[in-house]
Amino acid sequence: MRARGGVVYLVGAGPGDPGLMTARSLELIASADAIFYDRLIPPGALDGAREDAELLYVGKSPDVPVVRGRYRSLTTGTSVPQEEINERLIEAARAGKSVVRLKGGDPFVFGRGGEEGEALRAADVEFEVVPGITAGVAASAYAGIPVTHRDEASAVAFVTGHEDPEKEESALDWEALARFPGTLVFYMGVKRLAANASALVDAGRDPEEPAAAIERGTMAGQRTVVATLATLGEAVEREGVGAPALIVVGPVVGRREELAWLERRPLHGRRVVVTRARAQASGLAATLRSLGAEVVELPAIRIEPRLESDEVRQAVESAGDYALVCLTSPNGVHLLFEALGAASLDARALSGATVAAIGPGTARELARHGIVADVVPERFVAEALVEALAGVDVAGRRALVARAAEARDVLPDALRERGAEVDVVALYETVREEPDAEAIEAAQSADYVTFTSSSTVRNLTEALGDRFPNGARVVSIGPVTSEAARACGLEVDVEAEHHDVDGLIAALLTDTASR
Ligand code: SAH
């Protein structure tokens, strides 16, 4: 359901893992006119926002999460006063805008959503609340700690560990918390951990009770430190646990020994650099993350469409005359259809042609556009496509090879040799992407750098120079890429047997398992 004008949506963005955002939150983000957001929202949470949506950062820290390179920050010094946020929300809604107020976790769990709702009601502004997965539940689950358990905890309490220092008397009844028959989950409690733990022990809670601190729950690099109530303060200090972190106190913490699962994923604790163009990286990056890797996206190239050229226009005009159409990448497919579409044509323009895809990814993209590829070689290289086309009679007929500007000529040469009249059309160019400094820094301690094409190898090694992470193992998608890597002075540690993304991941998994 789209966001309605004049309404403020108090939306929970979940604890940090983008996959834990609700369907409703994504829908509202995609349709809102204005989005007011905090710092603790998942990376990429606003990627789906409308191009013309107003994005306003109103978080506490001046450290603004950059959203698609554009944002406007209301944070000048330390924090935007709550009253100002309320006023701005009211103002935007009164102007008829649909407004999303996006907060980490759940808006009504230590999120000041209640106060904002009250201010909106007082101003007679309509609002809706969209719950999110709160960190207390999510971080614990990712740490393998069930906050309730039939044998060990019949209740769970969410407690603030950081009280307003202005308050004269503590709102927390430490005796009641000490007696509480279940799990205690402290939010915002790292700084005051030692003081809070001793207050609990003084009030009668067992100092030997298991306790855990969970740092960056559900995010890349989640870390859990386990100790006892008496020793957790020290352990957290020693390990340098920082915000955001939660403290969990209770016998259920002991269940982690059995239930920890995050740390058991095959790529847990491995930092993997993905060098593909940003537009293509998401599949590889998501799979690596789901296997537990911490992914550093360091795109070395960018795809620049070249649909305005004469050769593209001519190819589109003669689309119906080709006996054979060869596509050598999913990008090529996507852009070919964009070019056809611009000329008011669709898949039927290729109805008379044999359509060949260089590999399964390209074939999948063709299928998305309504074409089942006639020829898909088993190995994902031009030579294999040439072989697979042996049975297709091209002598004296027209063939189209639609591809990137700077590709090898193996395929067109072979087709010409067999008498075809070949049009080679560059649908796009891959250009160097300047890597960002933060990603380069993060890549320094990488365990693996993955390469899926020769152009990524060349561009990345040139762009990084002596900042290439030499300690990382180099993973290549296939022999052509490996050769390019060696030509750039790299040693290739792992080469995929199947020359596609799945093959690359399989090779990486085999390598980690053996080390
Ligand atoms: N509304 C949020 C909580 C905001 S208070 C929710 O429902 O989750 C901020 C505190 O939440 C932090 O100080 C920390 O204690 C906790 N927190 C939020 N995200 C966290 C995360 N990913 N891992 C651990 N703790 C987190």
SSE map:
Layout: E1 7-12, H1 23-31, E2 34-37, E3 54-57, E4 72-73, H2 82-94, E5 99-103, H3 113-122, E6 126-130, H4 135-142, E7 156-160, H5 174-179, E8 183-187, H6 193-202, E9 210-215, E10 223-228, H7 232-239, E11 245-249, H8 256-259, E12 271-274, H9 278-290, E13 294-297, E14 301-305, H10 310-317, E15 324-327, H11 330-342, E16 354-357, H12 360-368, H13 382-388, E17 398-404, H14 410-417, E18 421-432, H15 437-443, E19 448-451, H16 454-464, E20 473-476, H17 479-487, E21 494-495, H18 501-513
Parallel strand pairs: 1-5, 1-6, 2-3, 2-5, 3-4, 7-8, 12-13, 12-19, 15-16, 15-17, 17-18, 19-20, 20-21
Antiparallel strand pairs: 8-11, 9-10, 9-11, 14-18
Residues 15-16, 40, 103-106, 109-111, 134-135, 139, 187-188, 214, 216-219, 243-246 line the site of S-adenosyl-L-homocysteine.
How would you describe what is shown here?
This protein has 515 residues and is α/β, with parallel strands linked by helices. The chain is 32% helix and 20% strand. The chain is built from 18 helices and 21 strands. The protein has helices at residues 23-31, 82-94, 113-122, 135-142, 174-179, 193-202, 232-239, 256-259, 278-290, 310-317, 330-342, 360-368, 382-388, 410-417, 437-443, 454-464, 479-487, 501-513; strands at 7-12, 34-37, 54-57, 72-73, 99-103, 126-130, 156-160, 183-187, 210-215, 223-228, 245-249, 271-274, 294-297, 301-305, 324-327, 354-357, 398-404, 421-432, 448-451, 473-476, 494-495. A six-stranded parallel sheet has the order 4-3-2-5-1-6, with helices on both faces. Helix 11 runs parallel beside helix 12 (360-368), helix 13 (382-388) runs parallel beside helix 14 (410-417) and helix 16 packs parallel to helix 17. It is globular. The mean pLDDT is 92. The structure holds S-adenosyl-L-homocysteine. S-adenosyl-L-homocysteine is lined by residues 15-16, 40, 103-106, 109-111, 134-135, 139, 187-188, 214, 216-219, 243-246.
